[in-house]
From TrEMBL:
This is Clp protease. The keyword Protease applies. Signal peptide: none annotated. Keywords: Hydrolase, Protease, Repeat. Residues 2-177 form the Clp R domain. GO terms for molecular function: peptidase activity.
Amino acid sequence: MFERFTHATRQVVLDAVTEAEREQAPEVTPEHLLLALLNGTRSAPVLAEAGITRQALLEAFAATHRQAGLTDADTQALAELGIDVPAIVDTVERTHGPGALAAPRRRHYPMSHIPFAPTAKAVLSGALRQAKERRHRHIGDDHVLLALATTSGPAAQALAAHDLTYPDLRTRLAQAS
């Protein structure tokens, strides 16, 4: 599959690894792929036009990670069952300190390899499907963005919060080409 990636898409994957290294994450996630798409890709102007900035993404992802990775939809579903996630997070953080529910940080080992999370692999496979559906020979960064919009989790939530749904992204990306 990687041989079908455009140069820009390969750079997105490399930049996602850099993002994961920067935050000492144990693996590369869809959030890292979305952050990498902000770096001069074909998708970057579409994201910027919608008001998505690196800082806004980092803040949104930090809020989600503080809740053990639960998205707003997860939190709302649990609230309907009578579970108050913010209250639980506050209680745990009072006892164990800020960020106690966040994913553990990775220790830095020289020349170590950061694996891709299954969710990030699914996004890259989804990008291949997006390219195939359009009968494109190569997988572009726009296909990665479309694949992100079809997933669930913090990256998709950040897109949806800026009204970037899958149909809207298809239209915007088509107009950008």
